[in-house]
């Protein structure tokens, strides 16, 4: 759906997994938007004005009204363009609760363990973070089995809320895998997620906006 | 008002603000529920079963399903029993509500917790942090997203009132136990007035424990924390002395 000039703008930066989330959501809803790339190391006036509390990207501006926090933006996009594309959150209230819970878990516990692998200064610390990350993925593998009901995504046939929450980290996960030689989305440990990861990255709503591993490594 | 087709059970702890959030929401919706008290330190087998990831209260059990994380539970309640909505209908308003809920749990609550668990310079920094956070909320109430409203939810208590309100009583408790000024009515007049109004609501009075119990509880925990840090520093001294 073509937006009017200036109607939908997204303040962000191409490497950020958090920025990727609203981009995928907007793509799923066929919403045209202007992408305002922040300069590296600098925060624009518009960003500071639009997100005075956190001063962080992403910020969605819809008719100049700011929406902040990546997964809140995703849910906003789902509601504001409810009649376009596919629903990002399921209709069933229990499944919605499960999607919201796992998205919370991913940011609260899983991402820090994945990031911990990159930050680790000793082999032991790295191994410990990796164990935590794999343990988390095992939980997410079970969640995938339950939520996907044999279909391609956490959202079923189409990309859903948890797909976006977890999938947005795949670019950085690949960088960490290259840097450390560790396989995060391992076919043996979490077979369903290993397949899902490739499928998510190849999806037409994702592939144009998922940062390339080589570019991230620079 | 429809009662749930399946029974609703809440696993909670009496002094836990996240438990209060769920209790208040259920009350506001007029829903009957069974309550099971959980020991913070020793989670029951039921709690471990229903919240294997975090092993914490609250956990809502409904028709064989378990829902955990208080803000997730509140939205589940609101979306499953649609009378007396606690979330606004408009997507932008919903995003604003969710943002400030996130702010409450991400910034305000940890700062308040730090006031309680620290002392000296660390505590002073935590108190300043609480003030900074309250300033942001005061501004939104006075001139921003919630200007002119009685409650964050409008004329009636909404989800953000529940999230902020169930927890804000610790401000007064910690003020007394820690002897610090957290929620000065002159610095935060609108927030202060909102909190008083919130705490006067019937359902809220039925949910939040009496302040005496909260004071006693807080004093007990503070004592325990202080004595633990005293004993650990003295054992360090002893160890240093014996190896020196």
Automatic annotation (TrEMBL), chain A:
Location in the cell: Cytoplasm, Cytosol
Entry GO terms, CC: cytoplasm; cytosol
Residues in GST N-terminal domain copies: 6-85
EC nos: 2.5.1.18
Pfam family membership, one: GST_N
Keywords: Cytoplasm, Transferase
GO terms classed as biological process: glutathione metabolic process; toxin catabolic process
Main location: cytoplasm
InterPro entries: Glutathione-S-Trfase_C-like (IPR010987), Glutathione-S-Trfase_C_sf (IPR036282), Glutathione_S-Trfase (IPR040079), Glutathione_S-Trfase_N (IPR004045), GST_C_Tau (IPR045074), Omega/Tau-like (IPR045073), Thioredoxin-like_sf (IPR036249)
Gene Ontology MF terms in the entry: glutathione transferase activity
Catalytic activity as recorded in UniProt: RX + glutathione = an S-substituted glutathione + a halide anion + H(+)
Lipid metabolism among keywords: no
Occurrences of domain GST C-terminal (ranges): 92-218
Catalytic class of the enzyme: transferase
Family per record: Belongs to the GST superfamily. Tau family.
Role this protein plays: Is involved in the conjugation of reduced glutathione to a wide number of exogenous and endogenous hydrophobic electrophiles.
Protein name as it appears in the record: Glutathione S-transferase
Organism: Musa acuminata subsp. malaccensis
From TrEMBL, chain B:
Main localization of the protein described in the UniProt heading: cytoplasm
Matching CDD domains: GST_C_Tau (cd03185), GST_N_Tau (cd03058)
Keyword match Transferase: yes
Domain GST C-terminal positions: 90-221
Matches recorded under Pfam families: GST_C_2, GST_N
Taxonomic superkingdom: Eukaryota
One BP term from GO: glutathione metabolic process
Reactions the enzyme catalyzes: RX + glutathione = an S-substituted glutathione + a halide anion + H(+)
Keywords: Cytoplasm, Transferase
EC number: 2.5.1.18
Subcellular location: Cytoplasm, Cytosol
SUPFAM superfamilies for this protein: GST C-terminal domain-like, Thioredoxin-like
Coiled-coil portions: none
GO molecular function, one term: glutathione transferase activity
Keyword Ribonucleoprotein: no
Family: Belongs to the GST superfamily.
Function field: Is involved in the conjugation of reduced glutathione to a wide number of exogenous and endogenous hydrophobic electrophiles.
Protein name: Glutathione S-transferase
Organism per entry: Musa acuminata subsp. malaccensis
